[in-house]
Write a structure and sequence with these properties.
This protein has helices at about 10-15, 25-30, 65-75, 100-115, 130-140, 165-175, 195-200, 210-215, 220-225, 255-265, 290-305, 350-355, 370-375, 380-390; strands spanning about 5-10, 30, 45-50, 85-95, 120-125, 145-150, 180-185, 205-210, 230-235, 275, 320-325, 335-340, 345, 365. By secondary structure, it is α/β, with parallel strands linked by helices. The strands form two sheets. Strands 1, 2, 3, 4, 5, 6, 7, 8, 9 and 10 form a ten-stranded mixed beta sheet that branches. The longest helix has 18 residues, at about 290-305. The radius of gyration is 21 Å and the shape is globular. It starts with 6 loop residues before the first strand and ends with a helix.
Length: about 400
């Protein structure tokens, strides 16, 4: 498959602004699909940057179609880390005649990249493009976990057309469905009605309020380590740190918290795509939001290059297995600890059929606190919730 038919080169103006100097910037060290160059050869490329200049489906944030190139202006000027993975900027998805054409082009491009073990980093555009990211996995018939960093749930009404406020409900009702688990990080309760919170609980999805994560950001690490896809709404960052979003409010994650969340996610061996959405250059002061998003993308590159390849493997001696009996499960809850990173997982009890169907999902990332909870003869909430999903 030739994905270049879906992509157009980065505007020359963006890459021409690179400063000269003896130390190369990121824009010098990555392959860039430019107007005067052929489409990059992807041999040896492990990370691919893709812009999507389409704001159809955006709600109350007109102007975000131009966000990708504005982020690139700052990203190219950053210094690369001590990275070994090849990076390419593949340009922008060609805007389709309809937004459905754009969805198709993006999902087809992502499907090819993911199938070829290339990690796509998507710059939107509206967050409704998360639906196209999901479709890439559905086309591959791959059951996934999705994490979203967003102040709201984007459920809307199932009868509403697909947009940035309703894309999640369209994913949930699609049949056949390939969404195993959904995690929202940073929702703000006053923006979410109670029926939506009740629905999330009924669906056994993970939802974590902004206030619970402030000061305890490390609690987000196992949640992000469990995700195949991460969608980051710029509106989840407080307006003081990221004014370039029409829906930004006074509360939200800080800039450094946003970077840390991205690093947590990208370090996971499980994460296979990430998207940054809803950045609006028309509302940005002094390019502050573009600078922050460029740094967040940098941390996505950094996290990917610091992966430890330590997802539990039954045949490996790099893991320690603990079996903790509890009053509810006399046979015990199985915990797995990596000797390499000290990260923890739990193994969820389920039948052979479920283990085969949910091959990448019955071993769930957790924390040492979950292990301590089991040692205190209590079943961790995280274990119990996943157990119910697999039964």
């Amino acid at each position: 498959m030739d994905i270049s038919v879906y992509l157009e080169p980065v505007a020359a103006l963006v890459s021409d602004e690179l400063p000269l100097g003896s130390h190369p910037r990121l824009g010098h060290s990555m392959l860039i699909y430019q107007e005067d160059t052929p489409f990059p050869e992807l041999e040896g490329i492990r990370i691919a940057l893709i812009g999507v200049p389409d704001e159809r489906g955006v709600v109350n944030n007109a102007g975000c179609a131009t966000g990708a190139d504005e982020i690139r202006r700052y990203l190219y000027k950053l210094f690369p880390g001590a990275w070994t993975s090849g990076i390419a900027d593949l340009g922008n998805i060609r805007k389709g005649h309809s937004v459905e054409d754009t969805y198709f082009a993006l999902s087809a491009t992502l499907e090819w990249l993911i199938s070829n073990k290339v990690f796509p980093v998507v710059l939107g555009g509206g967050q409704n493009l998360t639906y196209a990211m999901y479709k890439a996995y559905a086309n591959m018939k791959q059951i996934i976990n999705m994490a979203v960093i967003d102040p709201v749930f984007d459920l809307g009404e199932t009868s509403d057309e697909l947009n940035s406020n309703t894309y999640l409900s369209h994913i949930i009702v699609e049949r056949p469905n390939y969404l195993f688990n959904f995690t929202n990080l940073g929702y703000q309760t006053y923006y979410v009605d109670q029926p939506a919170i009740d629905l999330m609980k009924k669906l056994l999805f993970d939802t974590y309020r902004l206030g619970l994560l402030h000061g305890n950001l490390s609690d987000a690490e196992p949640l992000l380590r469990n995700a195949d896809v991460l969608s980051f709404d710029t509106g989840a960052i407080r307006a003081a740190d990221a004014p370039g979003n029409a829906n930004a409010g006074p509360n939200g994650f800080s800039g450094d918290e946003a970077c840390q969340l991205v690093r947590y996610a990208a370090m996971s061996d499980k994460l296979s795509s990430i998207g940054f959405f809803e950045y609006n250059p028309a509302l940005d002061r002094r390019g502050l939001t573009a600078q922050l998003l460029a740094q967040m993308v940098w941390y996505a590159f950094e996290g990917y290059n610091n992966r430890k390849d330590d997802f539990p493997d039954a045949g490996s001696d790099m893991f320690i297995k603990y079996i903790v009996p509890t009053k509810d499960f006399a046979d015990g809850i199985v915990f797995i600890k990596s000797r390499k990173t000290d990260r923890w997982w739990m193994e969820i009890v389920c039948g052979a059929e479920s283990r085969q169907k949910y091959l990448n999902h019955y071993i769930v990332p957790c924390t040492y606190k979950d292990y301590q909870t089991a040692c205190d003869n209590e079943v961790p909430d995280r274990w119990w919730q996943m157990y119910q999903k697999l039964m």
